[in-house]
Design goal:
Oligomer: single chain
Distance between the termini: 20 Å
Largest sheet: 11 strands, antiparallel
Strand content: 35-45%
Length: 279
């Protein structure tokens, strides 16, 4: 879908700030948001980030990401090319607190809306950084890829809320984007190539039982005995890109109450994702 760029130094536009990634280094410099970093200074600047050390992880499907030591790798699959609806390739996390990162791929042919939205991306460098219109394109990508969640809210339907957990569905009571979406440019599948990695952030309020509407259309989470249950709010950060005819979705998720403590680290894990490399 995306044209290759000769720029081996990745750049991201998040809220208008440009961040140099220093090439195909697995994304170590992505932790430095809202700062312009020269390629030669990326490694030194990354050392100033107050975050857990992230270890490299190459999935059986060939992708790369970095994750904290001590996390559990619950799922790591090589990928089934015949999986017509897509599949979760990996699920990692701190399952005690339900801080998770999942890697899922789905046939790009199922996501014509993503292809259309991402087509507005342009690798042209303007004034030393990427054009801010990429933020607008990223929001269109986000809207195309969250249509099912937003529709579930409107219809009081169930939807998967913990990435990578098959059939782990709950009623979605609310959905809201948080902050701007963004577009980063990092290594592609071909040696020396680059491609866009879109990211977006949102909150969901979920019900582990049935969602019902009360008087005035107010939604309630109703248990099997008719009692009103507490809902759960989760913060989600997603990185999306495509390669080899697949759409890759990397979803970092935690309880909203934990996001202040672990959100930055979860975002760094998701941002470190790189598509499988061709030999």
């Amino acid at each position: 879908l995306f044209p290759n760029s000769s720029n081996a130094n990745a750049t991201t536009t998040t809220g208008g700030a440009n961040v140099a990634n220093g090439g195909a280094d697995g994304g170590a410099a992505f932790a430095l948001r809202s700062t312009l970093i020269r390629p030669g200074a990326a490694a030194a600047a990354a050392a100033t980030v107050d975050a857990p050390a992230l270890a490299p992880f190459v999935g059986k499907a060939g992708f790369l990401l970095r994750y904290p030591n001590g996390w559990v790798k619950a799922t790591d699959r090589p990928g089934n090319d015949d999986a017509k609806g897509g599949e979760t390739l990996a699920l990692l996390g701190n399952f005690k607190d339900i801080d998770t990162v999942s890697v899922r791929r789905e046939p790009l042919s199922l996501h014509a809306d993503f292809v259309e939205a991402a087509a507005g991306w342009d690798a042209t460098v303007i004034g030393g950084g990427y054009d801010r219109h990429d933020d607008v394109v990223a929001r269109k990508v986000a809207e195309s890829l969250t249509r099912a969640e937003r529709a579930a809210v409107d219809a009081n339907q169930n939807f998967g809320v913990v990435g990578g957990v098959e059939n782990g569905k709950s009623g979605v009571m609310d959905f809201a984007f948080v902050g701007p979406s963004s577009c980063a440019v990092a290594s592609g599948a071909e040696p020396g190539s680059t491609q866009p990695y879109f990211s977006y952030d949102y909150v969901t309020e979920v019900c582990r039982a049935e969602v019902e509407e009360g008087l005035g259309g107010e939604k309630m989470c109703v248990g099997p005995r008719g009692d009103v249950l507490d809902t759960i709010r989760r913060r989600n950060f997603v990185v999306a890109t495509d390669s080899g005819g697949w759409l890759y979705l990397v979803k970092a998720s935690a309880l909203e109450t934990r996001w202040e403590d672990v959100g930055g680290m979860l975002m760094d894990v998701a941002r470190s994702f790189r598509v499988p490399q061709e030999e």
